[in-house]
Amino acid sequence: MAAARSQRVARLLVAVSATALAAVTLGSSISYAEPPKTLPQVKREVDALHQEAEQATERYNEERIRLQQQQKRVSAFQAKTDDQQARVAGLQKVLGKYADAAFRMGAIDPTIQLLFSDDPELFLRDSGVLSRLTERQVAVLNDLLAERKKLDSRRVALDRELQTLGKSREKLLGEKREIEAKLSKAEDLLDSLEAAEREQLQRASRSSSRSTGGSTGGSTGGTYTGPATGDVRKVLDYAFAQLGKPYQYAAAGPDAFDCSGLTMMAWRQAGVSLPHSSRMQYDQGRKVSRSELQPGDLVYFYSPISHVGIYIGGGEIIHATHPGDVISRDPMSYMPYAGATRP
Questions:
Q1: Domain extent listing, the chain
Q2: What is the reported pLDDT for 316?
Q3: What are phi and psi of 247, to 5 degrees?
Q4: CA-to-CA distance for 332 and 321, rounded, in angstroms?
Q5: For 332, which DSSP code?
Q6: Is residue 230 over pLDDT 90?
Q7: Confidence (pLDDT) at 53
Q8: Who has the most CB within 10 Å: 95, 101, 260, 290?
Q9: pLDDT mean over 259-288
Q10: Total-model pTM
Q11: Which of 331, 304, 322, 337 lies closest to 258 in space, CA to CA?
Q12: Would you call 185 exposed, middle or buried from its count of C-beta atoms within 10 A (0-12, 13-18, 19+)?
């Protein structure tokens, strides 16, 4: 009896162990799907991605300006280097004539060796050739030595500028990749919504706290009816005419703009040249206090500054909002205020 009871207990333990093992194995293979994001969660994430993309856009604009400046410097260095090379070649040609004359006279002129010397100064010093040259030849040789030094210096400077240019190009590409990655992620989030939810989210982005002022219904353009005159009127007329056009990073019209591209082009109508960068525009402009704001002034947002709009009066601005949105007329309170300038 005891033996039979022991066998039954052993079989029971095996069965329980097998059941437990199956449960563990089954449990480890079960994956719990992440609950779908709510509409407010998607909106917060999309808004944050758009803001980060706009910050990257303004960095991209600044880097692009620096790149253009560096390209100009490289071109100038290249032109100076080419000119220096031409002067050296001219002097070597003169010395070549001296050497040619020496050959015709049957003399072996040390200037021939000088032409091909890696260190002309050392050759002159060690060979004693200087004492056997005419005054004119000495002058040409001195000029050649000086011009060769300048040429070497310009080549070093050119190489340094080319290296800097290469680094700037890489940085620019990095900013571009960051912008596109954030925009792609935002679009993926929007694509995860049902059509009705996406439409609801788009309506929410034009919430009642914002005044669309002529950019609703897919229409574009508006008309300034305020009291501004002269050059400021040209700025505001241009800005109003762009209402409803899409935001596009690094764009400056005519069909799409980013924030600093819009302000740059608006003030260009008044003959004022601004850089395509919100931070650079702030650094360049004359600062005005919030209480002194007048239509046409540029208003800046966020810290560090990464957004700019055009003040139109009544506490409102026109601005190229952010990726996925359009140029609109909104209250300044829509974003954290950072300062203002008058171009």
A1: 39-191, 209-342
A2: 96
A3: -75, 135
A4: 12
A5: G
A6: yes
A7: 86
A8: 260
A9: 96
A10: 0.65
A11: 322
A12: middle
Q: pLDDT tens for residues 75-86?
A: 887 888 888 888
Instruction: Indicate the fold that domain 209-342 takes in CATH.
Output: endopeptidase fold (from Nostoc punctiforme) (3.90.1720)
What angle, 0 to 180 degrees and rounded to 10, lies between the N-to-C axes of helices 135-191 and 120-127?
160
Examine the pLDDT at 39 and tell me if it is beyond 50: yes
Handedness of CA 5, 10, 11, 15 (dihedral sign): positive
Whether residue 279 contacts residue 66, with contact meaning beta carbons closer than 8 Å, is answered with: no
Q: What is the mean pLDDT of residues 323-332?
A: 91
C-alpha distances (whole Å) from 19 to each of 8, 15, 24, 25, 149 are: 17, 6, 9, 10, 88
**Catalytic machinery residues:** 259, 307, 319
Percentages helix, strand, coil for the chain (3-state, rounded to 5) are 65, 10, 25
3-state secondary structure string across 36-71: CCCHHHHHHHHHHHHHHHHHHHHHHHHHHHHHHHHH
H or E element that contains 341? strand 337-342
Long-range Cβ contacts of 77-83 (<8 Å, 24+ apart): 77/154, 77/157, 77/158, 77/161, 78/158, 80/154, 81/151, 81/154, 81/155, 81/158
